[in-house]
Amino acid sequence: MAANLRALAARCTFAVVDKGRSLADELPQQLAKIDGKDKGLLQELCYGVLRHLPELEYDVREFIKKPLTGKQRVGHFLMLVGVYQIKYTRIPDHAAFNETVSACKPLKCEHLKGVINGVLRNFQRQQAAQSSENLTNKDLPDAIAFNHPSWFIQKLQSAYPEQWQAILTANMQRPPMWLRVNQLHHSVDEYLALLAAENIAHQFVDEKSGAIRLTEAVDVNKLPGFQLGWVSIQDAAAQQAASLLDCQPDDNVLDCCAAPGGKTCHILEYSPKIKAMTAIDIEAVRLERVEENLQRLNLSAKVITGDAATPDEWWDGELFDRILLDAPCSGTGVIRRHPDIKWLRKSPDIARLTDLQQDILKNVWSLLKPGGTLLYATCSILPEENSEQVQRFVNENSDAEHVAINQNSNDIGWQILPSDQSMDGFYYAKLIKKSL
What is the C-alpha separation between 209 and 138, in angstroms, rounded? Predict the structure, then answer.
């Protein structure tokens, strides 16, 4: 018997929100239970519910007498899945009703069929009434109106008083597909011609990195030469790292916290004459992705399972000319790609992360040659993890000199926001080690 998609979506979103499971861990387990043609819909339902969670919670709240708890809790997420279908997909309402209510059986909550059916039909009637009367919910709390946790909205309002709404709006969009051309094989212009020959349209090319933004996402296997290593999928913000690190011939290079290896590979493509590349990450499982990427692109690096905060356990004693430190962070710049971050990350996590970042930065700094360059990077948009972190490090280390990335700017580092040219939120700061 075929698995019920709505049941799988309810289980997945329940596991993320109530159990704290990562969507990247949970969704593949559910996808494995269905055929290929249904995988896209399951992914759509899971991502959609997590993107719009506060809004969907608000939508169902007035139609249930009391919240579902305990063993019935998964039924609550089934209601959210049902409302999302009615509100945001082209699935006919009758199909959404039938399939969602049918999911009660595999979820072992058949006693909730009447409740869930009633909630969905009441919501449908309310939505139709609001549409005919042109009503809008203008007075909703920001957490519901923008579908983000209150603590995060408050941080953005403080850090970006003029831009916070644009950032939250960008976080709700589906991320575009960006390509990184392996220029060991083709120039960007040559690859654009290959795309045109396959009728794959592009919308934009980033001047700094040469990153290509496609008009529409496509299956990677339809990209010319993907399996041959001619091209990779990587957001334009992440593609800035290789040029900013600016490796020179015969440099000894370290990529810290390297998994899944996109930047490791890009540096090797961009600077093929370096002496050596070492890629470390604390998670051995994630390093498998680094190895896979290196193999597909026919590149080589020394890949080590190790903790960047304790280099004595893995370092061979040879100093590095260039270090990329892609530090563990809140991930608040990539929410549009990983909407579960909004519900997995909590306000107290930020202080813990900034302590970890400072610890790693201090330890990795000791591995850098005098005159060498360290590029500090995060996929966060919070100043505590970025500009404030770098300023603190420079203040506490007399041999650390901050070098401006953007000319004529007094900013500490370069903060890319999710609303900037459709890139992910990202941060870079360039530090030079002075000889004392």
Answer: 41
